[in-house]
Amino acid sequence: MPETLNARVLVVQHMPGDFTDRFAERLDSICELDVSEAERAGTVGPAEAIIAQGGSHLLPREDDGVEISYRLTDDEPVHNVRPAADVTFEAGAAVCTEPLVGVVLSGMGYDGAVGAEHLAEAGGTVLAQEPAEASIAGMPKHTIETGVVDGVFPTSEMTDEIVDIVADE
Asked: With CB atoms 3.0 to 4.6 Å apart as the test, which of 6, 25, 54, 162 could cross-link to 20 if both were Cys?
């Protein structure tokens, strides 16, 4: 995503804690956004992205229109995973200002589907990866089945779709 978009991005990846810091470093090296692994508590501002630490849920707490404050929790796994996209989506739907966009990509199971419903109820936009191109189609497939998805795209088109949505807000 372009830095000029000034998006505040929260990423939940089903990944062990020993890998999320390296994942954040790798994304930071190839991305225009400033990408880092989430700390126990902090903020994410314009043109920044944070990656949930493996083994901890990422909970947005407050959005002042510029920065989103968050904290990590060690609450029980959801869908047998921690971090879980459903946890972040539901909390984000309750506190984040527009534009609110949730994206569900390749992954196993149902994580993301219930959270997507919360995002849609809050007026957000929900996008899903084309299941046929996903390495593991479960998460986008189950999210699409909720009926709240606004668009289904291959990953090669996802960034442009997000930019269009955020730029229109």
From this structure: 54
In the CATH scheme, what architecture does the domain 1-97 have?
A: 3-Layer(aba) Sandwich (3.40)
Q: What is the pTM of this model?
A: 0.96
- Smallest CA-to-CA distance from 133 within 113, 101, 105 is with 105
Task: Kindly give, in sequence order, each residue whose CB lies less than 8 Å from that of residue 90, ignoring residues fewer than 6 positions away.
Answer: 114, 115, 118
Close Cβ partners of 132 (under 8 Å, ≥ 6 residues apart): none
Angle (CA) 83-86-91 rounded to 5° is 95
Query: 113 is written with which tokens?
Result: 């589907």
Cβ(163)–Cβ(141) under 8 Å?
A: no
Where in the chain are all domains bearing CATH 3.40.50.180?
A: 1-97
Residue 43: what pLDDT?
98
User: What span, in angstroms and rounded, lies between the C-alpha atoms of 104 and 158?
Assistant: 10
